[in-house]
């Protein structure tokens, strides 16, 4: 008996030990979609589920904590908007946040120097104006008069300076987005400080840092390079002015206590209650533009999207993002279909081509594959309409979108011609082309098969399916030597609405993304370098426009579609100003629900 | 008995070490790390990554650190304790030493929080759910199994077969959703989204859903062992010496059929109280179930190790308790 039991232990423990990594491997798969942007999961504007599945259909549940807010009965919510944010945020520290469900809370409770409006234009917020010097290496923000925190205490320039310092502080939280401030003078000296050996130097380095408050209303940034888009960066959460004294008092988990979350946004955090799965905000009377029209916002965290749909039908919740699998049912339902919206998202979805591997080292072949992609059919049949066609890089709704460029539009005859020009008439002489995809997502399999059939028809080429475990594929794609010829997946999601984020960050030959596929165009580099330092907004946009034209002409990727978000919104909710930047959190997240009303 | 108990507890130490080592090894074999981003997303900047790795000790070697020991030796340090300490200044041993002191390390994702804080704060929700589900499974499962065995091939026997087949065959995400639709949307007896998990009432529905599978399993096992015991010679003896039927059932049949049940309920209880990812997600219970899965997805190393070690420890001690209870149930097993 005894022996038997000992053996039992070992078997159980061994199994357990073996199980963990297997699960870990599975995790990778879901956590690492083979690139696809269908789900729009990034940080700033991302889908709430952090471990988000790749393509639309797989996006469903299995996210952490789920349903269950307030004890208050559903109907008694008055003028308070109830939104499902799906996943409980890992952090509510503005300087540490990086995931959409975190930002979706913070954007209501805080405000940067600037904010984005419904057209994604950068507009004054805490700062009423800003001015660059001649070469855009200095920018000075002027705060509004009489700014107050939600508790009535004054908000001064020093509070923003503290937030910048806190973002860069290597002793602190080290948030994923601190790099948006790296162009500030003296930031690198702070970043290179070794903790704890040299940490005594940090206060001194902070004094030398290029962010100062000459008076209570003025904040001056000195930058190491011309940054004419800095005012857009000043809308990001990394400089939300969380109160230093409350942070110091609250310790490492200060952000869990709503009493410490005194902000300057349109709403104030009043409850962060994990036991009820509820984060509650109330209108901030001290907001500079006056009290918002809503009395409050209740953020709920129903992880199972099928359950969220039940709660929505039950009138327990006003806004949800439904499970993609439920969308056909919703569209067929007479009531729900009227409450369903599908705004465009922040991601351009593509297929990645390795520009150094045959045959995609040939620009004409890359163009042929772009022109030979029947986007309309692919999106209709394979993606069930969860994306919108596009043939350019910066998506609609974002500054720099180029509606006129139709060169990559689907045209089977032209595609065949391009292929012939490349010397592969009807595909003769082409090397084997493998289409590599994340094998962990069952939905991808069918889409890849559809794509193979499509290219057989339009180009007369048979691609070879090449399933690869998700995380492994992800790692392969991070080096041009191992990057596959053709990856099902790839693309980019906006961090902030400026062409710099789409072109300089991505297609400049020094960027990791361009490097990973071996894309290099000296003319693109030159235009981007000029644009990045150009102070005149019109000239700057023109330079980016020209650069984008060159990139699209080179067809480094197969550009496919723009992501779509999908929401159910109760009909009594009006005035929500949704933007592509909201992605899969809730409509109106970027604009802070400022003008939303409820007519009940 | 005490010696037996102590021996088992001591044995647990190498078992836990082995679990930690294997989990750690395999966890690091899985591609990717805790600060990875998807390829189409903004990547973590190099400087930021360096600071994060330094902060969480991921810049140290994984198992042993001969370089650090060498540096100390070259500086003229000859104290074997200090040299050994430097040699073991690695991710694995640092984790282990801290864990032995009850410090499971900081979570990489929920920054500013330690793994034990997170588990301690959210485990009570899972434990409440698990205990209720377990109580339901026992209180319904054992009597149903006993009755089914006593009235073999009767209506109640077939009924119990039906219930337990449904319980085992239908997955919780179906029963869970069904319960919500019927009792939440249609009958409006329960709230789908507005529940305070510090109360008792909201747990009733999820614990029935979660406990159903265990209940079914217990019913089947009870029935099978009862049927076996029923045919034993000592039961005939008991009847022959004129014991009342009730005494025969309670004193002889039930007690002797308990051993296989006790064997499965120990680990079964641990399973239930460590949380069910699916049940917790459907009903929105802020327990620890989801950590078992999400921490793996996110490569939150300290959370993976923490949840694994806690789970392993609970399983080991549940088994020790089960072994001890054998002795109480059957004197022949007493060590």
Account of the protein in words:
The complex is a heterodimer of chains A (600) and B (335). By secondary structure, chain A is α+β, with helices and mostly antiparallel strands. Chain A has a domain of 221 residues: Roll (Dipeptide-binding Protein, domain 3), CATH 3.10.105.10. Chain A is 32% helix and 16% strand. Chain A is built from 20 helices and 22 strands. In chain A, the strands form 6 sheets. In chain A, strands 13, 14, 15, 16, 17, 18 and 19 form a 7-stranded mixed sheet that branches. In chain A, strands 1-10-9-8 form a 4-stranded mixed sheet, with helices on one face. In chain A, helix 11 packs antiparallel against helix 13 and helix 19 packs antiparallel against helix 20. Chain A is globular, with a radius of gyration of 25 Å. In chain A, 58% of the residues are buried. Chain B is mainly α and 335 residues long. Chain B folds into 2 domains: 48 residues, no CATH class; 219 residues, Orthogonal Bundle (MetI-like fold). Chain B is built from 14 helices and no strands. In chain B, helix 6 runs antiparallel to helix 7, helix 10 packs across helix 11 and helix 11 runs antiparallel to helix 14. The longest helix of chain B is centred in the middle third of the chain and has 36 residues. Chain B is flat and about 85 Å long. Chain B starts with a helix and ends in a 6-residue tail after the last helix. The mean pLDDT of chain B is 84. Classes of the chains: A alpha+beta (600), B mainly alpha (335). At the A-B interface, helix 1, helix 8, helix 15, strand 18 and helix 18 of A face helix 1, helix 2, helix 6, helix 8 and helix 12 of B.
């Amino acid at each position: 008996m005894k022996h038997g039991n000992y053996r039992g232990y070992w078997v159980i423990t061994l199994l357990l030990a073996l199980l963990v990594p297997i699960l870990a491997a599975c995790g990778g798969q879901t956590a690492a979609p083979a690139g696809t942007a269908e789900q729009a999961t990034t940080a700033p504007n991302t889908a709430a589920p952090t471990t988000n599945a790749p393509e639309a259909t797989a996006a469903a549940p299995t996210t952490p904590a789920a349903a269950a807010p307030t004890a208050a009965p559903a109907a008694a919510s008055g003028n308070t908007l109830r939104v499902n944010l799906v996943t409980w945020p890992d952090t509510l520290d503005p300087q540490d946040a990086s995931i959409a469900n975190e930002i979706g809370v913070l954007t209501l409770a805080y405000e940067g120097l600037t904010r984005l409006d419904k057209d994604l234009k950068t507009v004054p917020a805490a700062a009423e104006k800003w001015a660059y010097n001649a070469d855009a290496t200095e920018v000075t923000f002027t705060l509004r008069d009489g700014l107050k925190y939600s508790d009535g205490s004054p908000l001064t320039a020093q509070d923003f300076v503290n937030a910048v310092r806190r973002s860069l502080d290597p002793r602190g939280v080290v948030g994923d987005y601190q790099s948006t401030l790296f162009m500030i003078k003296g930031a690198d000296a702070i970043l290179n400080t070794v903790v704890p050996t040299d940490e005594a130097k940090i206060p001194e380095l902070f004094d030398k840092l290029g962010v100062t408050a000459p008076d209570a209303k003025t904040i001056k940034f000195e930058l190491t390079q011309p940054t004419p888009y800095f005012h857009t960066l000043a809308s990001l959460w990394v400089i939300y002015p969380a109160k230093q004294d409350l942070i110091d008092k609250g310790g490492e988990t200060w952000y869990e206590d709503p009493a410490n979350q005194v902000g300057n946004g349109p709403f104030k955090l009043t409850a962060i209650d994990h036991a009820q799965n509820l984060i509650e905000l109330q209108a901030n009377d001290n907001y500079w533009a006056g009290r918002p029209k809503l009395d409050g916002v209740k953020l709920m965290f129903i992880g199972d999207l099928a359950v969220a749909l039940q709660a929505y039908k039950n009138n327990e919740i006003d806004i949800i993002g439904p499970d993609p699998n439920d969308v056909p049912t919703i569209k067929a339902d007479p009531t729900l279909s009227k409450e369903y919206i599908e705004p465009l998202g922040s991601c351009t979805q593509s297929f990645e081509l390795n520009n150094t591997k045959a045959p995609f080292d040939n620009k004409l072949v890359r163009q042929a594959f772009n022109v030979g992609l029947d986007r309309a059919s692919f999106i209709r049949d394979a993606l069930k309409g969860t994306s919108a066609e596009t043939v350019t890089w910066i998506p609609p709704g974002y500054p720099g979108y180029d509606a006129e460029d139709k060169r990559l539009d689907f045209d089977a005859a032209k595609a065949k011609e391009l292929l012939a020009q490349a010397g592969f008439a009807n595909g003769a002489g082409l090397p084997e082309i493998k289409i590599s995809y994340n094998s962990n997502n069952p939905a991808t399999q069918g889409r890849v098969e559809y794509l193979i059939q499509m290219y057989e028809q339009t180009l007369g080429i048979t691609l070879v399916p090449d399933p690869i475990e998700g995380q492994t594929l992800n790692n392969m794609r991070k080096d041009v030597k191992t990057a596959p010829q053709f990856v099902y997946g790839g693309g980019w999601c906006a961090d902030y609405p400026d062409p710099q984020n789409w072109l300089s960050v991505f297609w400049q030959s020094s960027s990791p993304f361009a490097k990973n596929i071996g894309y290099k165009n000296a003319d693109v580099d030159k235009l981007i370098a000029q644009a990045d330092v150009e102070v005149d907004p019109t000239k700057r946009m023109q330079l980016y426009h020209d650069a984008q034209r060159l990139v699209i002409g080179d067809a480094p990727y197969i550009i496919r579609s723009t992501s779509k978000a999908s929401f159910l919104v109760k009909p009594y909710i009006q005035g929500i100003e949704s933007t592509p930047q909201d992605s899969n959190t809730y409509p109106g997240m970027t604009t802070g629900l400022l003008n939303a009303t409820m007519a009940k | 008995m005490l010696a037996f108990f102590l021996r088992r507890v001591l044995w647990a130490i190498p078992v836990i070490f082995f679990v930690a080592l294997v989990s750690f090894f395999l966890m690091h074999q899985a591609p990717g790390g805790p600060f990875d981003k998807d390829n189409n997303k903004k990547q973590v900047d190099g400087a930021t990554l360096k600071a994060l790795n330094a902060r969480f000790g991921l810049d140290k070697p994984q198992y042993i650190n001969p370089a650090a020991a060498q540096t100390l030796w070259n500086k003229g340090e000859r104290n074997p304790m200090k040299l050994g300490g430097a040699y073991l200044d690695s991710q694995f041993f640092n984790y282990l030493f801290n864990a032995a002191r009850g410090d499971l390390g900081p979570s990489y994702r929920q920054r500013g929080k330690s793994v034990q804080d997170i588990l301690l704060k959210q485990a009570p929700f899972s434990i409440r759910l698990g205990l209720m589900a377990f109580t339901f499974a026992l209180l319904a499962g054992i009597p149903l199994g006993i009755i089914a065995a006593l009235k073999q091939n009767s209506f109640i026997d077939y009924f119990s077969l039906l219930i337990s087949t449904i319980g085992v065959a239908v997955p919780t995400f179906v029963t869970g959703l069904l319960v919500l639709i019927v009792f939440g949307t249609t009958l409006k007896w329960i709230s789908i989204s507005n529940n305070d998990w510090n109360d008792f009432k909201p747990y009733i529905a999820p614990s029935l859903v979660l406990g159903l599978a265990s209940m079914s399993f217990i019913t089947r096992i009870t029935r099978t062992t009862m049927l076996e015991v029923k045919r034993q010679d000592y039961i005939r003896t008991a009847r022959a010496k004129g014991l009342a039927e009730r005494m025969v059932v309670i004193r002889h049949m039930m007690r002797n059929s308990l051993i296989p049940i006790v064997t499965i309920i120990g680990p079964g209880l641990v399973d239930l109280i460590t949380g069910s990812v699916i049940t917790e997600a459907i009903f929105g219970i802020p327990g620890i179930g989801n950590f078992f899965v999400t921490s793996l997805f996110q490569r939150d190393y300290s959370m993976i190790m923490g949840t694994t070690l806690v789970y392993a420890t609970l399983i080991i001690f549940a088994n020790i308790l089960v072994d001890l209870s054998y002795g109480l149930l059957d004197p022949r097993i007493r060590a």
